[in-house]
User: What shape does this take?
Amino acid sequence: MLLRLFALLSLLVLSACSARDICISQARSELRTLDGLIAETRATVARGYAIEERTVPEEVFTRCRDEEGDLRPCWITVPRTERQPVAVDIAEERRKLAQLETRRAEEAQRAAARIRACEAQYPAG
Assistant: This one.
């Protein structure tokens, strides 16, 4: 019963995206990437420094099941993300931002053409 419900829900989720929606989403993927980079660079310029993220292992004391299935105290290693400020050349970040914005304008034109092709290939209705 549970497996049938899961299969039905999976079909509903997959059917929610039409071929046209998928095509348009793919046409916009480079724009989404550029938008993320632009937002990150703008935030760096506004703050005056970058934020570097790195994943480090951390030992955590918890309870684990042994071979017999009983709970026992144990240490496990889990990933933890650290965020640290990093000095950057703000002038360089501004140049990078200008380049990203130029690239985005160019990509927006290409994406619009790809979206029109998607709409022609998969008319609404």
User: Anything to note?
Assistant: The chain has a mean pLDDT of 90.
